[in-house]
Design goal:
The structure holds two protein chains of two kinds. Helix content of chain A is 52%, strand content 14%. Chain A is α/β, with parallel strands linked by helices. In chain A, the strands form two sheets. An eight-stranded mixed beta sheet of chain A has the order 3-2-1-4-5-8-9-10, sandwiched between helices. A two-stranded antiparallel sheet of chain A has the order 6-7. Helices cover 52% and strands 11% of the residues of chain B. Chain B contains 24 helices and 17 strands. In chain B, the strands form five sheets. A seven-stranded mixed beta sheet of chain B has the order 1-7-6-2-5-3-4, with helices on both faces. The chains are: A alpha/beta, B alpha/beta. The interface between A and B is medium-sized, with 23 and 32 residues.
Chain lengths: 306, 566
């Protein structure tokens, strides 16, 4: 299969490596172009080169997905299969990224990868699992072929919306987990917080039109366990940096990554108000990010009160 | 044969004076020549789908026999008796039939179902309806108009029903591909006014499925039978019957007959614009496109999301009552609503005399089966304005192929797009605007009360005339703001009208038709007389309530919006 990868970050390179190992011809498009040192993977700086790809992985941070999709749109047609791995929801209406792909490109055969899949696991050949959300059988077929490796378990659901929302909300809960850890929360406090967070996430998933059982699978629960168990994800690092009392900018520098959880907290809380559901944790995390609540007060609010 | 049953059979004009075909006739004019081929193709397809596993075949026959026996026993009239013995017999014997007998039985049943569904089209009846219907309707509305109507070419209906949208482009596209109109559904009048608006706009007549109950009136039945309607008997539960309906819709579109579906399935009980669609028939249209491409027939299929907006709804009272009684579980058939009562029709039509644009039909821009917009010459246009070939959506490695699961996924995406287009093309009418302001006032006056409590507040809540005018003006301006962002539409007449005139118009429309007017005037106040009706008319605006509210009304608006989602 001819596979394209958009994004030269860690995740993009991981997907490119795995696909090339499975015997596919892989072309990676990166704005920077040049040599990314991925074995057996060609790199291009021009988007038109992706026209002959059958499957394209989109591995760019969620704030760049809209621009990337616009850029990609004119090169695509109805036959292309587009699969993104970004965590995030766009705008006040919490639009999913697959929705962005469908409105900015002519592609309809889209999918979203979620769950506890880390770039490191892809390249290091460790056993790992991933959930693919798509309504299209040909998307599943393409992804299974692309990531065909004895160490990767691929599950599928047609609830693509549920997968995307779950991924974004796990990011938010992980941010709070890092914050609580930074304040020295004990495992039982943490368990209380995470459980409440999961319950809240299910309410949001349902209100946005996803299915609650999607959150109970790899997309939500599985991903959350990996985060809490310490798979080294940036949301935890950022939460810990915030717990040190750093402001958002400095915490971001310390965590060393862009983190979606920070930016959806307030929007989730606002949405919940409109939808008439309770999301106390999103509210507290939004306040934490804004710096209006701190320390033990925040931990108490996250786990016990509210 | 009993006389009564004569009416139940399709009544057709004799072939003697058949109209010679002319070049440029819409394809539907020759439908009767295609009729047998359509039935044969439908039969073939449904039969083919059940070849193979004999156990499966037995299940499907058993399902049909069980459901039909049950239904006909419950129906218990002479019509039922005719076929009851056939089905109960089959129900008893199905397990003992040999495989080849089962297959023969399947073919016989499917073919009979397809014949029962199949429509008819008679150009002579179409011409008659086109000429006479506006005059008849106007005559009912006000007999004094009749002489001028019959003499002149214009019609008061022209004033009453307004069609908006890209009519020129639709006319052109109707010659290049197959159009599938998918309108919102509020009233049994919908297919009548839509048919009228299409004819007046120079658009071809459509094939459409109509509930069998609409065929029970002999006059209506005559027209339906000869104007391209096919029969859908909603009482029939058998799986096979549903398959026949879907295959019928698919074959008809595949052969190039422009079609009409109400994708909401049933009239909106709450008066909200449909936000969930029944996917079955829209799915048939997507499948029709795929099958054409696989056959190498590149003619496109396009969808036209359409909204039908009424200032006054014939069946408003029955619909909202049903909505409140069975919240969330709309029934398909209301046996005895206003649309089956002649005096209500007359009262309704009389009420509308002299009102301009009491019904606005807004045709949205056409889209291809994958939600892309379509330009004037029928090319699909991607989001960045470049041309996309629709055949790529059903192709793999450059070759078109059939795939039912894929087409179901496309249909779900398409449904989302249609819902979005419905919202953007909703035209807010004066009664809806005024009802929204009144209902919001009621909600504000009854904090925390549920909808059932609120609709019991008959005549207890009043609103000062000045305040009402003020807020109608504010909400109207907010709607105009949404219109500028292409999120919603407003009736032309009230875009710039004085709020006072808008309120008067709404009160005038309600007064004298409904059992109780939604609201009436006393001195300097307006009394909410029938909160259910107020709710019904305002529901059209429920999804935008919060966006239309100023700070003082946000809480009430949010309640309305939440209530509307349930």
């Amino acid at each position: 299969m001819r596979i394209g990868v958009v994004g030269g970050g860690e995740f993009g390179r991981g997907l490119a490596t795995t696909s090339a190992r499975a015997g596919h011809e892989v072309l990676l498009w990166s704005r920077r172009g040049g040599d990314l040192q991925v074995p057996r993977v060609k790199v291009t700086g021009s988007v038109e080169d992706l026209a002959d790809r059958q499957l394209i992985f989109l591995a760019v941070p969620s704030p760049h997905v809209t621009d990337t999709a616009r850029h990609l749109g004119p090169t695509m047609n109805g036959e292309h299969v587009l699969v993104h791995v970004s965590r995030g929801l766009v705008g006040e209406q919490l639009e999913t990224l697959s929705h962005v792909l469908r409105s900015e490109t002519p592609c309809r055969r889209v999918g979203a990868l979620g769950g506890p899949l880390m770039a490191r696991a892809l390249t290091a050949d460790e056993p790992c699992g991933v959930i693919l959300g798509t309504r299209f059988p040909e998307v599943e077929e393409a992804v299974r072929a692309a990531l065909d490796a004895p160490t990767i378990r691929i599950e599928r659901t047609d609830d693509i919306l549920g997968v995307e929302i779950s991924s974004a909300l796990v990011g938010l809960i992980a941010l709070g987990t890092g914050y609580a850890l930074g304040h020295g929360a004990t495992p039982d406090t943490l368990a209380l917080y995470v459980t409440r967070g999961a319950r809240e996430a299910v309410r949001v998933v349902t209100a946005l039109g996803g299915r609650p059982e999607t959150f109970s699978g790899l997309a939500g629960f599985g991903d959350l366990v990996a985060a809490v168990a310490g798979d080294g994800r940036p949301e935890i690092r950022l939460g810990m940096a915030l717990a040190k009392g750093l402001d958002l900018d400095r915490a971001g520098v310390e965590a060393g990554a862009y983190i979606e959880g920070v930016f959806i907290a307030r929007r989730v809380a606002n949405f919940a108000k409109r939808a008439g559901i309770r999301t106390p944790i999103a509210g507290v995390m939004a306040d934490v990010v804004d710096g209006t609540i701190r320390g033990k007060d925040a931990i108490a609010a996250l786990s016990v009160s509210l | 044969m009993k006389l009564g049953s004569l009416w139940k059979r399709p009544f057709r004009l004799p072939h003697l004076a058949s109209r010679p075909p002319r070049p440029g006739d819409p394809l539907i004019y020759s439908f009767n020549n295609h009729r047998d081929a359509v039935i044969a193709e439908v039969t073939e397809r449904v039969v083919h789908a059940h070849q193979g596993d004999p156990a499966h075949l037995e299940r499907i026959l058993n399902d049909a026999a069980m459901h039909e026996t049950r239904r006909l026993q419950a129906q218990g009239d002479s019509e039922a008796a005719e076929s009851l013995s056939f089905w109960s017999n089959l129900y008893r014997r199905v397990a003992r039939l040999s495989d080849s007998e089962k297959r023969r039985m399947l073919r016989r049943i499917v073919s009979r179902m397809a014949q029962g569904v199949a429509g008819n089209f008679d150009p002579r009846v179409h011409a008659l309806a086109e000429r006479a219907a506006p005059k008849m309707l106007t005559g009912i509305m006000n007999p004094t108009f009749l002489p001028t109507e019959l003499a002149g070419t214009g019609s008061h209906l022209d004033m009453l029903v307004r069609a908006e949208g890209p009519l020129e482009s639709l006319r052109r596209l109707s010659n290049r591909g197959t159009l599938v109109f998918v309108p919102t559904h509020s009233s049994n009048l919908d297919s009548v006014v839509l048919g009228y608006a299409l004819a007046r706009a120079g658009l071809p007549p459509l094939m459409y499925g109509a509930g069998k109950n609409l065929f029970s009136n002999p006059v209506l039945s005559f027209f339906m039978h000869n104007l391209g309607a096919y029969q859908v008997d909603r009482r029939v539960q058998a799986q096979l019957y549903k398959e026949v309906l879907k295959a019928y819709a698919c074959v008809v579109i595949e052969k190039g007959f422009h079609s009409l579906f109400f994708p909401g399935g049933t009239r909106s009980r709450s008066n909200q614009v449909e936000n969930r669609l029944k996917l079955g028939l829209a799915g048939s249209a997507v499948e029709a496109f795929s099958r054409r491409q696989v056959r190498g027939d590149g003619r496109p299929v396009w969808f036209v999301p359409t909204t039908i907006n009424y200032d006054l709804v014939l069946e408003a009272e029955s619909l909202i009552e049903d909505h409140l009684r069975e919240k969330g579980k709309a029934r398909y058939i209301i046996e005895d609503d206003e649309s089956s009562q002649l005096d209500r029709w007359i009262a309704f039509l009389r009420k509308l005399v002299g009102l301009s644009s009491a019904c606005v039909i807004r045709f949205g821009s056409p889209i291809d089966p994958f939600g892309n917009s379509v330009d004037d010459i029928g090319q699909s246009i991607g989001p960045q304005g470049h041309v996309v070939d629709p055949v790529t959506y059903v192709s793999r490695n450059g070759t078109p192929e059939l795939n039912a699961e894929r087409d179901r996924a496309y249909t779900q995406d398409l449904a989302e797009t249609i819902v979005d287009r419905f919202r953007r093309n909703t035209v807010i009418m004066p009664t809806q605007l005024v009802a929204h302001v009144l209902y919001r006032h009621l909600v504000q006056a009854t904090p925390g009360m549920d909808v059932f409590g609120r609709v019991r507040e008959r005549g207890t809540i009043t609103m000062g005339w000045e305040e009402l005018e003020q807020e109608v003006g504010n909400v109207r301006d907010a709607i105009v703001g949404l219109e500028e962002r292409h999120e919603l539409r407003i009736q032309n007449e009230i875009r710039t009208a004085r709020p006072n005139a808008i309120v008067h118009r709404a009160l005038e429309v309600w007064n004298g038709y409904h059992t109780h007017a939604a609201a009436r005037v006393t001195q300097a106040e307006v009394v909410i007389e029938d909160p259910s009706l107020t709710l019904y008319y305002q529901n059209r605006l429920a999804p935008w309530a919060e966006q239309l509210a100023d700070d003082g009304h946000v809480a009430a608006a949010r309640e309305i919006q939440l209530e509307g989602r349930r």
